[in-house]
Amino acid sequence: MSFNQSLYQYCLIIALGLFSISHSFALTCRDSESLKTLLEQEDYRRALQNIDSCLSVRQQVSADDLRLFNQLIKQILIADDSISFNEGYRNFQAVLSIHLLESLEFQLKSNFEKYPKKAAKLFSKVRDKGEKYYFYYDTGRMLSYKRGFALTKQSLIWKNITGHPQRLAFNDINSIKLIYKPGLSLTNWKLMVNNTVAIRLSKVPDNAIIPFVSAMIYFINFNKTVPDKVQFLIPEIEMAILADWKTLCSYKQLEQDSPIKELQLLDACFSYYGKRFKLSHNDSKLLKKLINSIFENSKMSFDTGYNNFKVVLSTHFFQGLDFQFKNQLNTQTIVKLFKAVRLPAENYYFYFDTGMIISESRGIALTGKAIIWKNLSSISWKNLTGSANRLAFDKISSVTLVHEKGLKFNRGWKLILNQHDEIILSQLSEKNAELFASALIHFINIASSSHLTLQIEN
Q: What is the C-alpha radius of gyration for the chain, rounded to an integer number of angstroms?
C-alpha cells in the first residue's frame, strides 16, 4: 500500500469521528445481529444505514466500528460497470445519506422532477440542452439556486460566490484534488479540478469531506464513457489536517542504518508540518522508540554519546531556546559562568540560559564531571545575582521530572535530584520537558558510566 493510500484509510477513520474513540466497548455497533445478517447477505447499503444509525446516537465509538463504517463506504463506492445506472445512483445516495452530512441540504433527481421550473433555471446558461440534474448542493447563504455545484449524467456544473457558472464534461475530468486554504468561505476547503479550477466546499464539515467527495467522484466515474477514471488526490498536509491536525510522519519510510539518522529524518518531517500540528499517537510512539534506542546504551564512547545528546537537543522541539554547546561558548562566557562553584579544571559541554532579561545570569550547565544550575528563586534583593549549585555526577542517585500545574511563571516543570535538589526548567513545556530530561540523564550516564533512569511524577 502506498503512502497516500495508507494515509487515506487512516484519515477517513479519524475524520469520521464526531466523537471520542473508545477501545473498550462491551457492545459495539458491529455486534448487532441485524448488521451481521446484512453483511452476510452482502446488502451493503442497508448495512451502512444500520451502523450509521447506531453511530449517530453514541457519544463514544469504537475504532472497530469506525473501521467497518469506512469499509462499507468503500465497498459501496467500488466502481462496477456491471450494475445499472439506477443501482449506481442508489449507491451514491446511500453515502450522501450518512448522518455526518445531515446538516447539508442536497437536491436529488426527485426534487427536480417535482419542481421542474427550478431545474430549468439552474445554471441554464451553461447546461447542455437535455441534461437532467441528479444532484445539486446549494451553497448560497441568502439567494437559493444561485451558486453551488450540480451533477448531471454528463457533467459537473458549478458557481462559486464570485465568477460565472462553469461546466466541465465528466470525460474531461482527470483529477480532483482536495485543498485547504483559509479564506472568507464558511469552510476552508476547496476542490481543484484538473489542477486548474477551484470549487468551494462551503459548509461541508471536516469529518464529512472525504465521504462526500468520494461519493461525488464515484458518480462521475460511473458515468464516464472513457476508460480513464478521475483520481482523488489528497496532499499530505491536507491529510494531516483531516486527521485532526496531527503529524503523519510514521507512515513514511524512515528506515536508516542508525536510530540517530532516523531521528533526524523524523524531526525534518515534524518541522515540515509547522507549529499548529500536534504529534499523532503513532508518531509519538515512534519518537519514544527512537529516543530509547539512542539513549539506552551507556557503554558507547563519550564522543558518540555527546554527539547524540547534541542531535536530540537540536531537534525542532527546542526551537527558540538558548542552548549552547561546547564549541559555541566563547572564552568570556566560560570564565564568568557559575565561576563561584565550577572547579578550575572543568570544561563546559552544555549551557541552557534561562535568563529572561540578563543573559548568563541563570540556567543549567553540564561539565564533564557535574551539573551546575541557578534558579530564579535563588535571586533576591540581598543577592541580586543569586547562588549557583553544583552536584557531581557520581553524587546523583536519582532524577525525577515533576510537573506542578500551579507554577504558571515557569510552566511548572522541574527536575528533582536525589529527592531534594530542585532545578526549575524554565521555558520548557509538555512537548519537550521529558525529552530534555532524558537527554540530560544520557549525558550524565555517558560522562560518568552511571545507569540513571528518569522518574516522572505528574
A: 30
Which helix (H) or strand (E) covers residue 351, if one does?
A: strand 348-353
Neighbours of 208 (CB within 10 A): 21
User: Region 213-232: what's the mean pLDDT?
Assistant: 95
Task: In whole angstroms, give the CA distance from residue 343 to residue 323.
Answer: 22
In this prediction, residues 363-383 reach a mean pLDDT of: 78
Q: Answer whether residue 10 shows pLDDT above 70.
A: no
The whole-angstrom separation of Cα 304 and Cα 311 is 11
What are the two backbone dihedrals, phi and then psi, of residue 457, each rounded to the nearest 5 degrees? -125, 130
pLDDT (average), residues 38-50: 97
Model confidence at 29: pLDDT above 50: yes
Q: Helix 259-273 to helix 302-313 angle, to the nearest 10 degrees?
A: 10
Our CA angle for 259, 263, 265, nearest 5°, is 120
C-alpha–C-alpha distance, residues 289 and 263, integer Å: 10
Q: Is 391 in a helix, a strand, or coil? A: strand
Entry pTM? 0.82
Unique residue bearing C-alpha cell 519537550: 432
Distance, in Å, from the CA atom of 195 to the CA atom of 191, rounded to the nearest integer, reads 9
Averaged pLDDT for residues 55-81? 88
CA nearest neighbour of 232 among 210, 251, 247: 210
Go through the domains of the chain in sequence order and give each one's CATH number: 1-76 (no CATH), 100-244 (2.30.29), 246-269+281-294 (no CATH), 297-457 (2.30.29)
Instruction: Please state whether beta strands 20-22 and 60-62 pair in parallel, antiparallel, or not at all (unpaired).
Output: parallel
Report d(CA 229, CA 212) in Å as an integer: 18
